[in-house]
Amino acid sequence: MLDFLANTLLWWHWIIFGLILLILEIFTGTFIMLGLGIGATIVGVADLILILSLNKELLTWSIISIITITLLFKYFKNNSPKDKSGQSDYAIGIKGIVEEPIDANGRGKVKFNIPILGNTIWHATAKEDIPILTKVKIVNVKGQLIEVEKV
Fold first, then answer.
1. Which residues contact 91 (CB under 8 A, 6 or more apart)?
2. Any idea where the domains of the chain sit in the sequence?
């Protein structure tokens, strides 16, 4: 089988194979086919110029594909911090000002400069009495109620 491939596999077969893999990448979106396709296309061009043996073609394709896939994954890796907006725990640590006094284990209101889950004013609880205009920070979010403590 390898003798058959070594005698019949031409440079343009590699290029066609590479283009087919590049087209398949459109349907997968994994960057694996892209790396394999780029590797096969480069092998086809190298075979046209250098006339490589089948073993060298396969080795070159493997090496170029691995390098290309590795570079693609490093380049497209998402290094941005995960946005936690919309999740209840993203607001922990945000500071605000008490608008209505909060009794220990009772409710009051806190105003924030930025909207938290869509609202700037929230009903809040605390483990201690907190008077009006006191700076507080969020320590827990329980549905539509936040727990705060003095800063």
1. 116, 117, 138, 141, 146
2. 2-76, 88-150
* Distance (Å, whole) CA 132 – CA 5: 83
Domain 88-150 is classified in which CATH homologous superfamily?
Nucleic acid-binding proteins (2.40.50.140)
Q: Tens digits of per-residue pLDDT, 24-78?
A: 999 998 899 999 999 999 999 999 999 999 999 999 999 999 999 999 999 887 6
- pTM across the whole model: 0.54
For residue 102, the SS3 value is: strand
Q: Does pLDDT of 87 surpass 70?
A: no
CA distances from 80 to 11, 71, 77, 114 (A): 41, 18, 9, 22
